[in-house]
Design brief:
By secondary structure, this protein is of the alpha/beta class. It contains 16 helices and 13 strands. The chain has a 7-stranded mixed beta sheet with strand order 1-9-8-5-4-2-3, with helices on both faces. Strands 7-6-11 form a 3-stranded antiparallel beta sheet. Helix 5 packs parallel to helix 6.
Length: about 400
């Protein structure tokens, strides 16, 4: 393990003195981060929230005011915070497996679920790894059965399907501004209403549930400045790899990869300072995505012909953002070997999620314990390759070498 140089596993924005200095410019406050999202995504309403999870929670609480149904469909391989938000809002979780080729639902299974269960209020369509789903297929099923679509764009700000931004297709959508996910305010999210008729209801819901917490927000501002210091290869090891190794040594792999969550996640209001920094750096978004795509395509060109390895590319009519590149291994043991080697060398290898959603012990009461074969397979076989701005040509070649020799 490299103690003095560690590549972050995802392509988060780096923040420097120039970015923080922008907070002292009046122009940082003349337009809002919400305005940026509305214009960029092409939606009538956007609201900055404490996190992407808080944004989803607010959307679901809004849904309770416009639908009598109380079941929400989620994919079998998703961030554990998604079912926690569903449960906190008082909905029942229903799980649909993946299609085995991408992060899309098994569309046949989804169709049967929506047909047979009249209590389904919404389907959460997760654009995972910066890759847009075939949203029109989901839309057709949802429309037929009077079901709402909530797009999970936590990892896909800027992704496109048929030249429309992810987040503009559903009735609602949400984004994450958490550290490491591209544009960031250290911890944050955005709740979006895709139609004007839902905007006022969502705004009222947020106002009723979101509270001010000056102390907690002060801590986040300090952490945001700390992010600017530590989110760089020379110091990242201390805040990422060292804690991971500690929890792995105790046998707690869930906590090691930062997936030890709680249903009582915070929902307090984000300060003007953090919103202003998000607005001041928004102009970098498309430029950073282009850099991520360039790195991803370099990897794609070099890794296509490795036996037993499948790389998840963007599909026709889609434009991915590649916050990382997803690689699937036929042999899970081989995946583990490659992951260990990339982590040891500080080359930014990681996992998407540790488990399928029903395999997290703390989710058993919410998600049940039914086995979902494809979701479980993804958890065992998926590896992520970083497309970080800090990744140099020699780093990329080292990553390629590790995959080829193992």
């Amino acid at each position: 393990m490299w103690i003095h140089r560690e590549i972050p596993p995802t392509a988060g924005f780096s923040l420097g003195i120039r970015d923080y200095w922008s907070l002292f410019k009046p122009s940082s406050y003349t337009k809002t981060l919400e305005d940026d999202f509305k214009e960029y995504v092409g939606v009538p309403y956007a609201r900055v929230t404490y996190s992407g999870t808080a944004a989803l929670y607010f959307i679901l609480e809004t849904l309770k005011n416009i639908s009598q149904r109380r079941t929400v469909v989620i994919p079998s391989y998703v961030c554990p915070l998604v079912p926690l938000a569903v449960a906190r809002a008082g909905f029942t979780v229903a799980i649909c497996d993946m299609n085995g080729e991408s992060f899309d639902f098994n569309i046949t299974e989804l169709e049967v679920m929506c047909k047979e269960n009249p209590d389904i209020a919404a389907v959460i369509a997760v654009h995972l790894a910066g890759m847009p789903l075939d949203i029109e297929k989901i839309q057709a099923i949802a429309t037929l059965h009077g079901i709402f679509i909530i797009e999970d764009c936590a990892q896909s700000l800027g992704a496109e399907y048929k030249k429309r931004k992810a987040g503009s297709w559903g009735d609602f959508s949400f984004f994450s501004l958490c550290r490491g996910k591209g544009l960031t305010v250290y911890e944050g999210g955005v709740a979006v209403a895709g139609q004007s008729r839902y905007a006022e209801i969502l705004e009222r819901t947020i106002q009723s549930l979101e509270k001010k917490d000056f102390l907690a927000e002060a801590v986040k501002i300090v952490e945001l400045f700390g992010y600017g210091v530590f989110y760089r290869p020379l110091l990242f090891w201390f805040v990422f790899s060292l804690p991971r190794m500690f929890w792995e040594s105790l046998g707690n792999v869930v906590r090691a990869y930062g997936e030890d969550f709680d249903i009582n996640f915070p929902v307090h209001r984000v300060s003007g300072i953090r919103r202003a920094l998000g607005h001041a750096t928004f102009y970098r978004l498309d430029r950073e995505i282009d850099k991520q795509r360039e790195k991803a395509f370099y990897f794609l060109s070099q890794l296509r012909d490795i036996p037993g390895v499948r790389i998840l590319p963007e599909f026709p009519l889609c434009r991915g953002t590649y916050p990382y590149l997803t690689v699937f291994f036929d042999d899970p043991c081989r995946r583990d070997t490659v992951l260990h080697e990339l982590e040891r060398k500080g080359l930014g290898g990681s996992r998407v999620y540790v488990y399928a959603v029903t395999s997290y012990p703390y989710l058993r009461a919410i998600a049940g314990n039914k086995e979902f074969p494809v979701g479980s397979k993804y958890a065992r076989s998926a590896l992520t390759i970083s497309t970080s701005v800090f990744l140099r040509k020699e780093d990329m070649d080292s990553v390629i070498s590790v995959l080829r020799k193992n």
